[in-house]
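Q: Predict the assembly, please.
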Amino acid sequence: LALLYTNLHRDCRWYSVSHLSVRERIEKKRKAALVGGGQKRIDAQHKRGKLTARERVELLLDPESFVESDMFVEHRCSDFGMEEDRNKFPGDSVVTGRGRINGRLVYVFSQDFTVFGGSLSGAHAQKICKIMDQAMTVGAPVIGLNDSGGARIQEGVESLAGYADIFLRNVMASGVVPQISLIMGPCAGGAVYSPALTDFTFMVKDTSYLFITGPDVVKSVTNEDVTQEELGGAKTHTTVSGVAHHAFENDIEALLNLREFFNFLPLSNQDPAPIRECHDPSQLKLTTCWTSFKQYVHEHTPSLYNICNNIFHFLDAKDFFEIMPNYAKNIVVGFARMNGRTVGIVGNQPKVASGCLDINSSVKGARFVRFCDAFNIPIITFVDVPGFLPGTAQEYGGIIRHGAKLLFAFAEATVPKITIITRKAYGGAYDVMSSKHLRGDVNYAWPTAEVAVMGAKGAVQIIFRGKENQAEAEAEYVDKFANPFPAAVRGFVDDIIEPATTRKKICSDLEVLASKKQVNPWKKHANIPL
Amino acid sequence: MAAHSLSPPLSRLLFTVKYVSLHSRCCAVHSKAHYSTVYNPNEKTFDKILIANRGEIACRVIKTCKKMGIQTVAVHSDVDSSAVHVKMADEAICVGPAPTNKSYLNMDAIMDAIRVTGAQAVHPGYGFLSENKEFAKRLAAEGVMFIGPDTHAIQAMGDKIESKLIAKAAKVNTIPGFDGVVKTAEDAVKIAQEIGYPVMIKASAGGGGKGMRIAWNDDETREGFRFSSQEAASSFGDDRLLIEKYIDNPRHIEIQVLADKHGNALWLNERECSIQRRNQKVVEEAPSTFLDPVTRRAMGEQAVQLAKAVQYSSAGTVEFLVDSKKNFYFLEMNTRLQVEHPITECITGLDLVEQMIRVAKGYQLQHKQEDIPINGWAIESRVYAEDPYKSFGLPSIGRLSQYQEPLNLSNVRVDSGIQEGSDISIYYDPMISKLVTYGATRNEALAKMEDALDNYVIRGVTHNIPLLREIITHPRFISGDISTNFLPEVYPDGFKGHQLEVDARRELLASAAALYIAAQLRSQKPYLCYRVSTIPVKCTHWELCVELGKGCHAMEVTKSGDVYNVEVDGGKVEVIGAFNLASPLLPLTINGSDRMLQFKVRVLSKLASELNSYMPEKVPEDTSSILRSPMPGTVVAVSIKPGDTVAEGQEICVIEAMKMQNSLTAARQAKVKSVHCKPGETVGEGDLLVELQ
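A: Predicted assembly structure:
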C-alpha cells in the first residue's frame, strides 16, 4: 500500500532549496508540514468522510493549546527512490505534540493518512516514542489518533522496530498514565497491538477497521469471504470481539466525545480524578428509584429490569459514559460522577441473561475494574447476580479461569469500593462481585436483597431431597435466606438501606473514602490468571 | 448537546417534597386551592370505598376519600402493582393480568376484592366499569353501594338510541336524522343513505369519542361499520352500533349535572370541549367563550330535565353539539364522572367526587341552583404520551425517566397517576396527566397554562406538550373561534411543531450557546486539580454554531459574569442566567424578560461546524418497500400473505394500540415479499411488519 502511494505521488512541491536562506527554508518546511501529503490527498481524505490529522488534533484539543514537536523530522529511507526530495515530507506521516483538553495536559499523536497512507516509518515511530516518553516523565495521558495503512514497507525492519518501540512504551506506560486509542481509519497487521495495549480503544463507524490480516489474506488462508467492515469494522469490534470499547458516528462526534470522556480521567496514577462542580445536590436528592425499582423487583418475581434505569437515578445529572455498551451486555460498566467525583460503575444487567456472569462479562468487568484501580477511581458495584452461566460452552471456554479474572481484579483493587446488593447475590458470584470478603469498604443491601448459595428451588431440591412437601420446604428456605438478614447479621453487609437513600449514602461514603490508603504486599507483579 | 440546567433551589425542593410525601401534597393542593365548599366531618358516609379504576382518576378519588376520612381499596393488574394509586390506597388487591378484560374489567375478581376487603361502596371512575349496568346490578345484589346513578339511568342513557327517545320525550333538543341497530354493512349503508351523508358511526355502548367514525359515502360506511363493530365487540362485548347525522363544524359543549336521590338536580355550568383530535378531547375549558347566559340557562335546564326524566342521581354530563347559530342538540349523557371534571370544580368550587359520595349515601344536595357560581376561568390540557407529529397524536410507550409537574406555580392543578420511573404501557390509556390552570379571566388562565406547559418536564416518552402549547397560543383559540374541526383546519398538513419567529429563534439559539459555554467553563475548572494550566487563557469570547432543524446558525458570544451577549442571525440577544447544569429546566432572562426553556439542540465550535461539512451523511433506510409499525401495539389482523400483489392504499394489517385500531396500508403497488408479523403478536414502534418487492 505504501509503495503504491509513493508511486502515485506525482505532485512535486519543491525540489532544490539550496538557493534559499535558512530562515526561508524554515518557513517553507513549516508550510509544507502543515499540508502533509498535499491538497489533493487532503481532498481525498475529506471525500472519504475523514478529517486530516491536523484537523483532528485541533478539534480534540483546546483552541490554540497544541504545541507540536518534531515538525521537521523526515524519514531516513534511501531505497526505492524514497531518498528523493519529492518523497520527503517534513514531519513525516504523523503529527505529534502536547496540548490541553479543558485546560488539562495531554500528549497526542495523530497519524497522517495523506503522507504515504499514514504508514509507519522509523521516524514516525520515533516521534510517537518521544511524546510517550515525555508523557511518562511529567505524568500525562497519551491519546493516539490512528489512521495508518501499516508498516512502511520500504523501510523493512526499521518499521517493525518502530512498532516494537511503541509497544514497549505502551506496556511501560500501562497503569502509569491513561492511554486512549481512537481508530479513525485503517489499522492493520502488527499496528493493531498498540491500540490493544492501551486502556481504551474507540472507533469511528464506517471509516475505521482493525484486523490482523485483511479480507484478501483471510480468503487465501481460510477461504472465508468477508468484507473489511464485517472482519474488523466498528460494529464487529464493539459487539462481537470486544476489542473496541465504543464506536462513534463520525470523526467529529468521536473527537468531541473523547473530550467528554477525558474529563473523567486523572492525568496519571499519581493524580486524583478530577472533581467537577456538582449541580445535582446529593443531600436533597432522595431518588424516586425505590418506586420504579419495586415495580420490577417485586418480591420473588423473576422479572427482568434494566439496571441502567436504576443506576441513572444515582448519578450526577444521569450522566453515564458506558464502556462497551454493546458487548457482554449482562454486565454494565462505565464512568459517572457522584457529587462531582469520578466513579467507575459496575452492575449486573438482569435484562440480559438474567445478569449472570459468563466469560465475556467477567473479562469486560475485570479489565474495567483494573483500570479504575490503577487510576484512583472508586468502584461502585450494583449486585444482582444469579451466579455464573452454566453449560459446556462456558466450561469448555474456560469460565473458571476467566471468571477468576474478575474475582482477582476486585480482590486486588485498593481504591474505595462500595457495593450495593439490590436483589440476588447467589453463589460464587456473590463473592466475586466486590463482596465484603474481598475488602469492600462499604457494602449495602437493599431490603430486596437475597444473599444465598442458590435460588430457593435448587437449594430445596438438594437440602430436602426426597422430602414430600417441597413447596413447604421452599417456603421455609425463602423465609430464611431470601432476605438481607443472613448477610447482615454476620456483618457481611454494613447496613440495609432504603433505595431512595442510596445516592446520599454513596456520596457521603466517597467523601470519607477519598483518603483511603491500602497497600498490597510487595511483589514484582501479581499473576492474574490470563 | 443536551439541555441541562436547573430550576432554582426552591423548585428543586418542591420536587423532592413532591415525591417523598405524595399524600400530603395532594391534600394540600386540593383542599386549599380548589374547593370552596367545606367538608362536613359530622356527615357520616362510608367507612371504606373500593375504587374500580386505575391511573389519575383512581388517585383523584382516593384524595377526596382521604379528605372525608374514608378508607380506600385500590384494585390493580399485575403490571400496576406499584402504581401510584396502589401506593396511595390503604389496601390494594390484584385483580388479574395486564389486559383490561382480565383485570379492570374482570367483574368476578373485583367482586371478590369487595368481599375480601369489606368495602361498602365502589367508585368506578370513568371508562372500565363506570357505565356497566351489569356491574351496578351485581353490586346492588350484594348490597354494595355503586357511587353513580342507579342501573335504570345507566341503562337508559347508556343506550344511545333509547337515550335519544327519552331526551325527546323530556323536551330536550335532539339531533336531526336518526338511528337504528345495525346488523350488516348493507344495513348500515341503507340507514346512512336515509339520514343523508355525512353520518357518524360508533359503538352504541362506547363512551366518548372512542371508536367513532365518520362516513361521507357508502364505501366509508362499510369500512366504518366493520371497524366499529369489531371495536364494539372487543372493547365492550356488545356489538350494537349507532349511526346518526353528522353535524359539520360543530362545537362540543357539555353541561355538568349533579342530582340526588330526592329528586333535586343542579346544572353546574358548561365545559367547552371542542378541541379534539380523532374525536377525542385534547383541551377543554370552562366556561365556554361561546355561550351567553340565556343559552347557558336553556342548555342547563334541558340537561336537568333529562336528568330528572331518568331519576338521575350522582354526577353526570349531558353532551350537546352547538352549531354556529347557538342551536344545541343533545348528543348523549355520560352517567359517570368525566375526565374533564376538574375545570368545573375550579369554577364552581365543588368537589364532585365528594358530592357523588354524599349523594350515594343518600344525602340531599347542599346547594341550590343560584348558589352555583362561575368563578373565573379554568382550562384543562390533556397531557398524553403520544407523538403529536403523527395524526395529532399516536401512542408512544416507554418509561418516564424524568418527570416533574409544574406544581411550583400557583393556580395549577395536575391530576396524574404516574410519577418518575413509571411505565406507560401498551395496555392502558396513554394519558400522562390532566394539567389544569385557572385564573380570574380567561387570559390569566391561558397565560398560566403557557407557563405550566413550559415548566412541565417529561423525559423518556414522546409527549404532546408541543401541540398543547401551540393550541393554547393560537390566535384562533385565543379569540375563541373554535370548533371540533379546529386541528385539521389549522393544521391541514398535520402538526409540524412550533414554527419559530426570527426573534424567538434568536433567543433560543442564544440560550443554547450560553448553556454550552456554561458547561464548557465548568469542565475547565475541576476542584482539587493542581495541574490545570495557570497561564491565563482568554475565555470571554466564543464563536459557535448551533444546529437547529436543518440549518446551522453561526454566532459570537461574549460573557461577563452571568451575562452572555450573543450576536446571531444579524441580531443581538442578551441572556442572563446562572446555569444549573443538572436541571432539565432552564430559567433565563432573555432581553429583559423571564423565560423558562427546555430544548435539545447541538452546539458546535466554529471549527467543528466548518469541518462538519466533510462528515458523510448516513444514508437512511429505503422505506418505500418496507412497512414498519408506526406505534407499539398488538397485531389484530394481517390481510395479506407473501406473494400477494397489493394496490396502493390497500390494507396490509391492523394494529391495535390503546384500544384504537389502526389500519396500515401499502404506500405503493407492489408484490409482498415477506410478512414478519402474525395476528395476536405484540410489536414495538419501528418493528418491521411487511416487506414489499
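Residues 1-33 of chain B have pLDDT under 50 and may be disordered. Chain B touches chain A through 46 residues (CB under 8 Å).
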